[in-house]
Prior knowledge:
Layout: H1 23-41, E1 45-50, E2 61-65, H2 72-78, E3 85-90, H3 97-106, E4 109-111, H4 118-130, E5 134-137, H5 153-161, E6 164-171, H6 176-181, E7 186-192, E8 196-198, H7 207-219, E9 242-244
Parallel strand pairs: 1-7, 2-5, 2-6, 3-4, 3-5
Antiparallel strand pairs: 6-7, 8-9
Amino acid sequence: MSERVRAPDKKAPPLQLTADNSPRTRLARRFMRLLGALLLWRTTVKVTYHGVENVPRHSPTMLLFNHLSQVDPPLVGGMIRFRDVTPIGKEELLHNPLTAWMVHFWQAIPIKRGELDMPALRRALYVLEHTNDMLLIAPEGHRYKALSEPKEGFILLAAKTGACMVAAGISGTQHFRRNLKRLRRTPVTINYSRPIRLKGKLSRQEYRAAADEVMYYLAAHIADPSLRGLYSDLSKASMNYIEVVE
């Protein structure tokens, strides 16, 4: 196939839609933070968090979290005041009027699940390589009651960019909807890990093993052991493919 045939679609959204170079995006994100503070932190949840000082202030970074509830992304990203995040979320969010406007105004990256979504991958690479935003990623690609097998896309991004990874273990949000119906605030705990990175260059066949090591690392930072799922046995954790960034 020729280069002309492979040329990018001119109708595709530009990669430069990030907080670093769009005043409209910065303004929209500021407004949404205020809205989140009103609807979440001051009204419906009570967050205890540890380790925010571990999050790098610069350098390519991915913020990885276990996904229990729809409120996880704003809580995990919102606790970090000194650096912005660009979330990656399922494309179906664009089909729901309640979430589509959030994706649009925050300039989150919608991704098609179950396939290699190259436009989403290119936007994710742009964020890591050309902005100071962190990528906010749920490695499993969906909400689960406890940790399940991850997709390997985040390892691919780490391998291509050398980005470090910070694990954000969240617990408590699985009760959010029930407590909301009862007009109760939900206690939430978020633990941020020291950053880790891949050791050297990995072969494609090593991505799965590396992903599992990261998931054990994430599991160790989830306060509620019942949410660790497939990665509950921390004695099986290893660091053959990952290392802590000093």
